[in-house]
Amino acid sequence: MSNATTTTNTSTQPATPAIDNGRKKKGPAFSKAEDVALVKAYLGVTTNPTVGTNLTEEGLWSSVVEGFVENCENLFNRDVSSLKSRFNSISSRCQFFSASYAKVYAARKSGENEDDWVSQIFIFYI
Q1: Which of 26, 57, 105, 124 is 20 to 30 Å from 6 by CA-CA measure?
Q2: CA dihedral defined by 6, 24, 84, 14, rounded to 10 degrees?
Q3: Long-range contacts of the stretch 110-119 (C-beta < 8 A, 24+)
Q4: Could you please report the per-residue DSSP string of the chain?
Q5: What's the burial of 13, exposed, middle or buried (CB within 10 Å: 0-12/13-18/19+)?
Q6: C-alpha to C-alpha distance for 90 and 95, rounded to whole angstroms
Q7: Which PANTHER family has this protein been placed in (predicted)?
Q8: Residue 83: beta bridge partners?
Q9: C-alpha radius of gyration, the chain, whole number
Q10: Which of 90, 75, 69 is nearest to 28 (CA)?
């Protein structure tokens, strides 16, 4: 037997979810590029007037996955449930930021500019 260890270059191999005791293990964390690709794909589907609002949830996410694959250069094998979960996380943070902005905007004072508002928003948001 040899004591040499074998290493593999994981950056070129797709991440596939492993199964342990009937549970799917977590894949690698989403990169910023993947987050951007996911949001672009979602917005591309949901704001497309030719698609309309007649999509089923399955049809929506099938189209989002397709757009995600097109928009993402460094692609890991992400399944629909991981994309949904990540999008929900991004969406909830965006909604919280938007609510913070609305609070600050509603309470703005004369003479304040948008830079002042942004500073106040971060007090709520962070």
Answers
A1: 26
A2: 20
A3: none
A4: ---------TTSSPP---EETTEEPP-PPPPHHHHHHHHHHHHHHHT-TTTTT---HHHHHHHHHHHHHHH-SS-----HHHHHHHHHHHHHHHHHHHHHHHHHHHT--TT--HHHHHHHHHHHH-
A5: exposed
A6: 9
A7: GLYCINE-RICH PROTEIN-RELATED, PTHR45023
A8: none
A9: 20
A10: 75
Verdict on whether the full-model pTM lies above 0.85: no
AA letter at 44:
G
Rounded Cα–Cα distance for residues 74 and 111 (Å): 46
Nearest to 78 by CA among 45, 20, 37: 37
Is residue 12 over pLDDT 70?
A: no
